[in-house]
Write a structure and sequence with these properties.
The chain is α+β, with helices and mostly antiparallel strands. Helices cover 14% and strands 12% of the residues.
Length: 347
């Protein structure tokens, strides 16, 4: 037989065999393709046709893609375009799903999932199922009577930060955080009730005692005069609370005038200058002495403060008249002493 004729016969036989094979294969999954393409047949639009023939065995682009698999398959089996109802024109539909978030009121364009929840209208503006103040995203809400942080105080009750349970009128002011913890408008050291504050000790007179007390030690009741503080002894007769115990001249035993301790021990004239008189004596500690000419009532010396622990005192009086005969020593504690002046030194 002619080789050309044999070749043609072989080619025809092969084509017939291939056609039969394809027809058999397409027929085996034709029902699957039909099911995927339903309920719309044939598909239109962006998706290529599923059904070009009613025969399951007939080759179609969809069947070819199904057979090929992979990414090619997606080019033929596309989901149907959803139906989205938007009567109020706010771009949100009532169906939800492939149409996006559900519009809970398709008659009002101001109510949809993209709207802002308004606290004053009693409407679920943003369609999230939460109305007014129940929605954390709501605006224009009056929260003054709501305890937002659960600390037992509302803004109307003085809570100055209703987002922080540690800040409320019943909290303790802490000096270390720069916050008005107890909502009294005083922060840290400005609040006298604050705790954990650094110690400040004021000692203006440098006597080692401060006016603050507490961690600074005993309170200095006079921070101007250094010899008035809790560490000194009470000085009698100066009408001051020297030791800052709240009492004046306590423990001072004034014995005058009944049993006077005021005395003049010596009266001497200066040999080089007989007009200079030196007087020594003893008196109650803290007393202030005044020396007077008995005859003329002239004050010879005053403001003599008795500071020695034994009560000793000494005064030098200049320009004393030769007519001086007697002196009177008066003390601030009520003591009074009259003394004759020994003038033998003039002879």
């Amino acid at each position: 037989m002619n080789k050309k004729i044999v070749g043609c016969l072989i080619a025809v036989a092969g084509a017939l065999l291939l056609t039969a094979t394809n027809g058999f294969c397409f027929g085996s999954f034709g029902s699957d393709v039909n099911a995927i393409c339903s309920p719309v047949a044939p598909y239109t639009g962006d998706c290529l046709l599923c059904h070009a023939s009613s025969s399951k065995a007939t080759s179609t682009p969809a069947k070819t893609a199904y057979l090929a698999g992979g990414t090619t398959l997606t080019n033929f089996f596309c989901p149907p375009t959803p139906t989205c109802t938007d009567n109020d024109g706010d771009t949100y539909a009532v169906e939800g799903g492939d149409c996006g978030p559900v519009d809970c009121d398709d008659t009002n364009a101001a109510i949809n999932p993209g709207a802002t929840e308004i606290c004053t209208d009693n409407i679920d503006n943003n369609c999230n199922g939460l109305i007014d103040i129940a929605d954390p995203a709501a605006v224009n809400c009056d929260t003054s009577n709501i305890d937002g942080d659960g600390d037992g105080f509302t803004p109307a009750q003085g809570d100055c930060d209703d987002t922080n349970a540690a800040i409320n009128p019943n909290a303790i002011e802490d000096c270390t955080d720069g916050i008005d913890n107890n909502c009294n408008n005083l922060i840290d050291t400005l609040d006298p009730t604050a705790v954990n504050c650094p110690v400040t000790c004021t000692d203006a007179d440098g006597d080692g005692y401060s006016i603050e007390g507490g961690d600074c030690g005993p309170v200095d009741c006079n921070d101007i005069i250094a010899n008035i503080n809790p560490g000194v002894m009470e000085v009698c007769g100066d009408n001051r609370d020297n030791d800052c115990d709240g009492n004046i001249d306590e423990r001072c035993k004034v014995t005058c005038p009944d049993g006077s301790v005021l005395m003049v021990k010596s009266i001497t004239w200066n040999k080089a200058d007989r007009k200079k008189l030196t007087i020594t004596g003893r008196a109650n500690v803290g007393a202030i002495l005044t020396i007077i000419d008995k005859e003329t009532k002239t004050v010879l010396a005053d403001g003599i403060e008795v500071t020695k622990s034994n009560g000793g005192w000494r005064v030098v009086i200049k320009h004393v008249s030769r007519s001086l005969k007697r002196i009177i020593v008066k003390s601030s504690d009520g003591c009074r002493l009259r003394e004759f002046v020994d003038r033998s030194v003039f002879r």
